[in-house]
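Re: beginner question about structure tokens

> Can someone show what the tokenized structure looks like for a real chain? I only ever see the sequence side.

Sure, here's an example I had lying around. Input first:
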Amino acid sequence: MKSIVFLIAAISIIYVVIIVIKQFDFRLFNKSYCDTIFDADVVPDLKEMLADNFVLYKMLGEKGRKRFEKRVCRFIKMKDFKAGNNISEITDKMRVMVAASAIQITYGYPKVYFNHFHTIILFAEEYYSTITGQYHEGEVNAGGAIVLSWKNFMSGFSNLTDGRNLALHEMAHALRLTNIVDNDEYDFIDKDTMLLFEKIALTEIQKIDNNENSFFRSYGAANLQEFFSVAVESFFEQPGEFQSYNPELYVLMSRILKIDLLNFEIQ
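And the corresponding structure tokens:
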């Protein structure tokens, strides 16, 4: 009888020790990941990669860059990255590029991390959607997933001044959806500013439909949601041209994102 009692006690102790070790290792992993991922000896060239690809990071001072990096780390820890077809491994560089795209969009909202979107799925190239019956470069679905074609994702960073960037486009969709779906980051964009933006956007959509001269590419005429994402692409890649073409719309976008690249204060 005593041996049975001792055995049960020993098993209980072992169980508690395992739970404690698991929790400790998890916390340690989180801490070491954020502390070391931007260490050049661990993953070389990550900071240079951010400066080369993200205009906002490049404009920041040392403190601002540290803040940006910490937010990138936090975003990565909060998401479940999954490999789609023909992706053998999701590397730290891939995770950082995706996370930095989200953080550049949300930098003006320090507490916004797209909590509603818990899964990031990366495909090697365009993927077939059984829902739409079409091939896609990327999508943001209300079910909580952001899906991206890695080939098209990286293509958007090959030219940072053409106003075409899949990462910015899809993260802009994620920003709008996060703002309107029921979640703990709900309703952070000023309603009046967004309504005024959409009013002017409708005029731009009409211009595109009428084949009139418009600064924005034709895909923006699909609907207000697509116009917003196209405008975000232009805002980060062509801010001067955007502001010259339509100063009022530029100001409204800067208020929505809480960033003004043309009057940026180094942080």
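Each token stands for a local structural state, so reading them left to right follows the chain. The chain has two domains: 79-188, 189-267.
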